[in-house]
Design goal:
By secondary structure, the chain is α+β, with helices and mostly antiparallel strands. The chain is built from 8 helices and 5 strands; from the N terminus they run αααααβββαββαα.
Amino acid sequence: MLGARAASGRLDRLACEVGKKRVQSSRQTRQVRQVRPKNIPPPAAPASQRKQRERYVQSGGMLQGYAPETVMRIGYIAAGAAVACLAIMALILLLLPYGWPVRIVAAVVWLVPIAFGASFILPGFRLALRDRKLEPRMVQGQLLGASEVSTSIGLGMLMLKTRGGSEQYLVTPERMSKVPGNQVNVMLSVTPNLRHVRSVAVMGQRVVGRPDQPVPPVLRRLRLLPIATPVALAAAAIIGADVVALIPFYPELAHAGAAFVAGAALAGIVFGVSHLLQRRLYGEAQTLMAGGLR
């Protein structure tokens, strides 16, 4: 889970760099005041990165930026899936034709997807309940960058310079279309907890159009990793433990131990492969940024 959140934070910073390059590459075709980026902030220090991760988790983690209504629907679907997992656990405990040690090991692994779902969805669901009762707050700042890609599927990203420093906001595509390519003042209506942007208002002239650029495939794959990794880990643990639990051999304590070891080993292999894949994809993304999105 920590690896998935770390990948989300790194992809957030990468998406911001993409947005900055797009703003800097825009050129004005008319005789107007040319606005250029000033004082682009340097890479965040370790302490600052830690604060960003804490704020990311406090704002809903992977559900940050989505509408409270959408987050609540996701929570209800996850609750239904959790009930299904509990029902399967009950069937295994009642019907598996082996002793209780084997039944318990085969059933307990079905708690893994419930634990992952609770850690990722429950914090955002609580924030969504609060946001439904609160009024959005207004945020005003200077546009530093805009990107159609972010760690959240279906959301783009805006980076603003406000009185409190640089701020990142996840925005839906229909609202991203209102954002120009030059540096202008922008006003956002944002929910207090999930930081969902309900409206975007551009203050001043929209001088430069924001060019559309295709999202590199490596960024699309990186965006899926925080979701695919927990799913693959849970599936590996369940398959490894339950398949061995169905194989008849004795003594029962050895049978239960073998099922546990098989589930843990398969989950460990999946975790190692996902970690290596994450490092390789992130290296490709850094190379892409070093070469430049022209």
